[in-house]
Specification:
Shape: elongated
Protein name: Ribosome maturation factor RimP
Number of domains: 2
CATH topology of the largest domain: Alpha-Beta Plaits
Number of strands: 9
CATH superfamily of the largest domain: Cation efflux protein, cytoplasmic domain
Distance between the termini: 42 Å
Main location: cytoplasm
Function: Required for maturation of 30S ribosomal subunits.
Structural class: alpha+beta
Family: Belongs to the RimP family.
Strand content: 35-45%
Order of helices and strands: EEHEHEEEEEE
Subcellular location: Cytoplasm
CATH class of the largest domain: Alpha Beta
Length: 146
Amino acid sequence: MLQDSLPGPELFVVALTVSDAIRPKITVILDSEQGFGIDECARVSRRLARHIDETYGEEASYTLEVTSPGADQPFTDLRQYTRHVGRTLSLTLQDDTEKTGLLEATEAAGIQLAEEVKEKNKKKVLPTAFIAFTDIKEARVVVSFK
């Protein structure tokens, strides 16, 4: 049902939650490899609301929120990496080590990351290294206000 409400194949669902309340809140978090705006969120929201009303009746009581992931939210879908090529990521690996660096490219099995390390109060960029998706526990964009 939800995939049918998405305008075009470029949008995908990264999270869907329904609160356990008298008036449930349905939250749909969408993303795209190219990014998208509020107009797409509004279109999806209207389509979903129409479908819910047709399925459960217009008297169904709920709140619907369609949004994109916040800048500080961890990636939940491998397709999210593509949109962030050229940005700095913070990674936590499966062995709990942490890496920060510039996402230079994505591949079918992982990413190319130019890791930044601190040496004597200076940042040093290591040569680009491949990191497999299976080795990544969590990835987030580093938000910078420079």
